[in-house]
Each structure stands twice: as C-alpha cells, then as structure tokens.
C-alpha cells in the first residue's frame, strides 16, 4: 500500500506545482487545493498505515491488547482538512473579487504593486 | 496553576469574540479594542515577570501529562515576544481609532485585529509543533482578511501574491510536520528534541531541517522568498501595515529560532551555514530594493526584509553572543519598524500621499513629527545612543568573533545603505520645500484635536521605548542574554516540559 500511496502523493505534488506555475489565477487556486490534499495524504502515509486494527480498548483493560492503528494522524489530517477548507474558500472568494476588480484572469496583468 | 501562561492567548480571543457580538455598536468595539489590547499588554508583562523570576513556565492543557497533551510553554524568549506583541497591539489599537474609517470598522476590523493578536501570541507560547501550525493558520486567516479590507485594486493584486506564497509555506511546514511525526512519533517539541537525538539517519534529519527552514523562511521573508512582502505590505490601511510589519515576519523568525535551537542543532555545520548566506543575501537584497523606491511604505517594507537578515544572522552564527544579538535585534526592530509605519500614516493623513515626490516641507509645519520620525529612522540605521546601535553592535561583534568576515562586512555595508534610505525619506518628506500643488488635489479634512492625540500617543510611546532601550542597554542586554542562555541549553526547556506532568485534579 505504501509504495502506491507514495506515487499518488508524488503525482499530486507535481500536478499542484505545475498548476501553480500557470498564469491563470483559477489554475493557481486549483494548484493550492491539490497541494493541501497532497500534504494531508503525506501525513496519513508517513505516520504508518495499519489495516483493520481500530484503536479500541476492550472493557476492563487499560491498554489495547494487540498492535492497533495510530489514531493521531487521522486527528491531524482532520484538523488540516478543516483549516485548508476555510483558507481555500477564502482564496476562491479572493480570486472572484480580484477578477471583478482587475478584469483579468492573468497574473501577468497584476503588476501594479511591483513597480 | 499559572494562569498568566494562557491569558495572553485567551484575552485577545475573548475580546475578538465579544467585539463580534457588538457588530453594530461602533463605540463598544473601539472601547474593547483599547481595553483588550491594554489587558494583553498587562498580562504579558506579568508573564515576563514570572518567567524571569521562576524560570520556564509550563501549562499542560486539560491536565494531560507532557507528550500526550498540548503544552503551553513560556520561556524567556517566548515571554519577551509576547510582551512585544502586547506593546504593538496596544499602540496599533490606539492608532486605529483615528485612522481606520467607518467602512472598515463596519466590516469587522477590530475582531480581526484581536484574532491576529491571539494567533501571534499562541505561536509564541505553544510547545507543540502541530499546534504551532494551527496558530500560524489562525494568524494567516486573520491577516488575509485584514489585507483585503476595502478591496481596492492594489490590495487584490498584493493579496493574491501574499495568500499564495503563505499557503505554500504552510503546506511545506505541514508536510515537514507529517514526516517528522512519522520519524519520531510525537508532536511535543521537547519530546521531539529528545527522541531526535537518538535517531540514526542524520541525512533525513537534514532534509527535514531544510524543509522547516524553507517554510519559516517564506514566512520570515528571507532571501530568496521575500518578494510577497514588498508586493503586499503597502496596500492595506496603514494601521494594518504597521501591525503586519511589527509582528508577522517576526513570528517566522521566532519559529526559526525555536526550531533551530531546540530541535535541529545536531549538524550546525550544514544547516547554519546555509542560514549565514541566506542572512547575508537577505540583508543585501532588501536594502538594495529599498534604494530604488520612492513610495514611503514600500521603502519601509523592503527594509523589513533587510532587517530580517540581521536577526537570522544572529541565529546562524550560533554563538552565545550572536544569539543575544538576535534576540536584542528582534526587540529593537519590532518597536522601531511599527513606529516608522505609524509615522508614514500620519504623513499621509496630513498630506494625502505616500509618494515621496509629492511630499515636502513637513519640518516647517510639523517639527515635532519630524523629530519623532528621526528617532526610529536613526535607530533603524544604527545611530548611537538609540536602540539600533546596540543591536547592530552586538550582531557585528559576534560576527567578527566568529570570524565570519564576509557576512559581517555585508552587515556593516547594509547599515550604511539603511542610513541612505532614511536620509532620503527625511530629505524628501520633511526637508525639501513642498512641490507646487497639482490641478485637482482633493481637499483633506483638518486633523481635529482628538485625532491628533490618538495619532501622536502611540508614536511618542514607541519612540520612548526606542530611547529607553538605547539609554538602558544593560538591563535589556541582560534579559536578552538570559534568554539566549535558555535557547543554547535545550535540556532546560526539555526538562521543564517533560518533568511537569500536570497537576492532578483533586
């Protein structure tokens, strides 16, 4: 499973960087979305994947009886997803407003602040 | 129970939430802005006092013992940064009363300001690396919204660059945290430091160190990743610029200091060498960028970049004296840079422009403002007896002692060029005779007595801080020295966090 995930993550990062290097601001935001998803998958994979062993402690015991999956990476990914969702919705609104004001979808036309 | 460790985060959060409740009551929001930031300043002083008396303070959230729960840790360096946050927050809140228009206030300027302060204070106090990421995001989201309040064309263009680069750095940071967790299986920074010293593969540690360096380097606006800063910092209302200039990049610098003194200090020959050259190029590119500019706030923005270089140099040399210099430089820089932005806003209020070519003759009409500009400007360039002299002196002396002559030469040269930029502003804005008024200049409302007070009070207060640091160098030096001692000896931080297993509930 891990090699497959590694390949998927690599493709996601590469696609994201490629999209961010385009001039269109819509593609820029798509790149950001892919990038945050790639990071989430990376956390999930690098922390180790365990199949079919939920981290449950049987009644009466004080610790799990066998090797279980680590629940923490899932909590981290959940937090990161929520944050990325908020930030990306902001980015979508931002490019819409920017398009309305600048009247262009092209980053090369946004040079007023670079003089 | 030490409430002062958590209060600097809780107070701005509560003040922000309460301001949201008073969405339509402008007066209540304004009172809360001053009251909330004032309370933040007082508790931060309380925190600094307790930390310097009792050593590193630790608070375990929810009473979960150290590696399992989230720890809040206040060492001297963190406490100093929180005090600076309080000072800047209070000054900017006062200044906002006069400069933030009704339109911006109606769209939630004050709640966002509190949220930003909460994020900054949280980043300074947390002892958990994933929690640091969360506080970074709290701070970033607030800063995104503050940056585009008013939605002018320049703001939108600046914001796209700012948002993209900062999100990129957050993702790199998050990926590095994920890989780090995969390696050591913990998120508590003290615990990471402990376990990382037992890890065999040092190559992987170096990779992680460089990932953290890039992530925080973007946030700190270090070379070669600084270009988002001068593209965006001059676009929002000036109170927002001042708040950003004082605090945001310094959170990146703080994170660099924390991570490279506590966690990644195994292979300083490699990582710190990169930092030395990064610091030198940051100083040089920032100051040369500023030399070409003729817009008040853009000159100041480029100087933020060049000053960041000095702080990173303090970390990169990694000797006791250099770290003292780095901490001292941060204290000096935050106050001075915010003050310069506040002065630029005052000039804009009087003459309606930030363009140096359209300004002039302010020394004749407002001599006091001219003096108040000179204090931070000369301090920034490193003139004795102001705060910048001692800050530069310590860093440069540390450079000579470490025999890093190339980068020390750059530091001296950049000091000279900074002086050139400041003199340029002085000559253009205050000294030369005002240019002929153009055809359709908008009439500016005269500044009322009350506005005058709200504008002058923070500028005078911050200028007094600069003079105080300059004339009182010794106690401030000792404070910086004590905090550098703590930074250089990570076992004290680790012991404080790991031995404090939380108080057992009765």
Characterize this entry briefly:
Chain B: Its main location: membrane. With 115 residues, chain A is mostly helical.
The span between the termini of chain A is 50 Å
Radius of gyration of chain B: 22 Å
Which quaternary structure do these chains form? Answer: heterodimer
Strand fraction of chain A equals under 5%
Largest interface, C-beta closer than 8 angstroms, per-chain residues = A-B, 37 and 37 residues
Summarize the main sheet of chain A.
none
Structural class assignment of chain B:
mainly alpha
Q: How would you state the average pLDDT of chain B, rounded?
A: 91
Which H/E pattern describes the elements of chain B? Answer: HHEEHHHHHHHHHHHHHHHHHHH
Number of helices of chain A: 3
- Per CATH, the class of chain A reads Mainly Alpha
CATH topology of chain A: Helix Hairpins
Uncertain stretches of chain B = 502-506
Quickly give the CATH architecture of chain A.
Orthogonal Bundle
The amount of helix of chain A comes to 55-70%
- State the total count of DSSP E strands of chain B: 2
Global outline of chain B: globular
Number of domains of chain A: 1
Strand-pairing-aware structural class of chain A: mainly alpha
Report the mean per-residue pLDDT of chain A as an integer.
89
Q: How many helical stretches of chain B? A: 21
Key phrases:
heterodimer, A: 115 residues, mainly alpha, Helix Hairpins, 3 helices, 0% strand, B: 506 residues, two-stranded antiparallel sheet, 21 helices, 77% helix, globular
Reconstruct the topology from this structure.
The complex is a heterodimer of chains A (115) and B (506).
Chain A: H1 2-21, H2 25-46, H3 72-102
Helix pairs in contact in A: 1-2, 2-3
Chain B: H1 3-21, H2 26-54, E1 57-60, E2 71-74, H3 76-99, H4 102-106, H5 109-125, H6 129-148, H7 153-184, H8 189-196, H9 202-220, H10 228-232, H11 238-262, H12 268-291, H13 296-317, H14 320-351, H15 362-365, H16 367-381, H17 387-401, H18 405-431, H19 449-471, H20 473-488, H21 490-499
Antiparallel strand pairs in B: 1-2
GO cellular component, one term (chain B): plasma membrane
Domain NADH:quinone oxidoreductase/Mrp antiporter transmembrane (chain B): 128-416
Transmembrane segments (chain B): 6-23, 30-48, 68-95, 107-126, 132-150, 162-184, 204-229, 241-263, 275-296, 308-331, 368-395, 407-427, 453-471
């Amino acid at each position: 499973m891990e090699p497959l995930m590694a390949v998927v993550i690599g493709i996601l990062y590469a696609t994201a960087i490629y999209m961010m290097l385009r001039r269109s601001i819509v593609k820029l935001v798509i790149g950001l979305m892919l990038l945050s998803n790639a990071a989430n998958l990376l956390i999930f994979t690098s922390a180790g994947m365990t199949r079919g062993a939920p981290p449950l402690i049987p009644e009466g015991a004080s610790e799990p009886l066998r090797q279980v999956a680590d629940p923490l990476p899932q909590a981290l990914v959940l937090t990161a997803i929520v944050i990325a969702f908020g930030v990306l919705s902001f980015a979508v609104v931002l490019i819409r407003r920017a398009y309305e004001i600048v009247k262009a979808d092209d980053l090369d036309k946004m040079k007023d602040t670079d003089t | 129970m030490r409430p002062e460790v958590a209060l600097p985060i809780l107070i701005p959060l509560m003040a922000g939430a309460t301001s949201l409740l008073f969405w339509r009551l402008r007066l209540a929001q304004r009172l809360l802005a001053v009251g909330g930031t004032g309370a933040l300043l007082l508790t931060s002083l309380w925190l600094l006092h307790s930390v310097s008396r009792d050593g590193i303070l630790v608070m375990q959230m929810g009473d979960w013992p150290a590696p399992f729960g989230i720890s809040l840790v206040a060492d001297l360096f963190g406490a100093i940064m929180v005090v600076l946050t309080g000072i800047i927050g209070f000054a900017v809140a006062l200044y906002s009363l006069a400069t933030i228009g009704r339109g911006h206030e109606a769209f939630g300027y004050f709640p966002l300001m509190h949220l930003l302060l909460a994020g900054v204070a949280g980043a300074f106090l947390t002892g958990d690396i994933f929690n640091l990421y969360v506080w970074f995001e709290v701070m970033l989201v607030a800063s995104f919204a503050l940056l585009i309040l008013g939605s002018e064309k320049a703001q939108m263009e600046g914001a796209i660059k700012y948002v993209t680069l900062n999100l990129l750095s957050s993702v790199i940071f998050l990926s590095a945290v994920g890989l780090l967790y995969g390696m050591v299986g913990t998120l508590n920074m003290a615990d990471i430091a402990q376990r990382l010293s037992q890890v065999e593969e040092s190559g992987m540690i170096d990779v992680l160190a460089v990932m953290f360096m890039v992530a925080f380097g973007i946030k700190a606006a270090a070379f070669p990743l600084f270009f988002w800063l001068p593209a965006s910092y001059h676009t929002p209302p000036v109170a927002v610029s001042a708040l950003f200039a004082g605090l945001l990049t310094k959170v990146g610098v703080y994170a660099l200091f924390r991570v490279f003194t506590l966690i990644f200090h195994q292979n300083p020959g490699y990582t710190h060498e990169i930092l030395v050259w990064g610091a030198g190029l940051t100083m040089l590119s920032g100051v040369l960028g500023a030399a070409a500019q003729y817009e008040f706030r853009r000159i100041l923005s480029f100087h933020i970049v060049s000053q960041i270089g000095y702080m990173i140099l303090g970390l990169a040399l990694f000797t006791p004296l250099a770290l003292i210099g780095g901490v001292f430089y941060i204290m000096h820089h935050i106050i001075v840079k915010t003050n310069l932005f506040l002065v630029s806003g005052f000039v804009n209020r009087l003459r309606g422009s930030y363009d140096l070519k359209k300004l002039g003759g302010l020394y004749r009409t407002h001599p006091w403002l001219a003096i108040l500009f000179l204090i931070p400007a000369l301090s920034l360039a490193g003139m004795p007896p102001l705060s910048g002299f001692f800050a530069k002196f310590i860093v440069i002396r540390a450079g000579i002692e470490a025999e890093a002559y190339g980068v020390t030469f750059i530091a001296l040269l950049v000091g000279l060029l900074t002086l050139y930029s400041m003199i340029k502003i002085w000559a253009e804005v205050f000294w030369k005779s005002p240019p002929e008024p153009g055809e359709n200049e908008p009439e500016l409302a005269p500044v009322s007595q009350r506005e005058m007070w709200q504008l002058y009070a923070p500028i005078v207060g911050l200028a007094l801080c600069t003079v105080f640091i300059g004339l009182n160098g010794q106690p401030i030096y000792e404070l910086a020295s004590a905090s550098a001692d703590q930074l250089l000896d990570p076992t004290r931080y680790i012991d404080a966090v790991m031995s404090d297993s939380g108080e057992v509930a009765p």
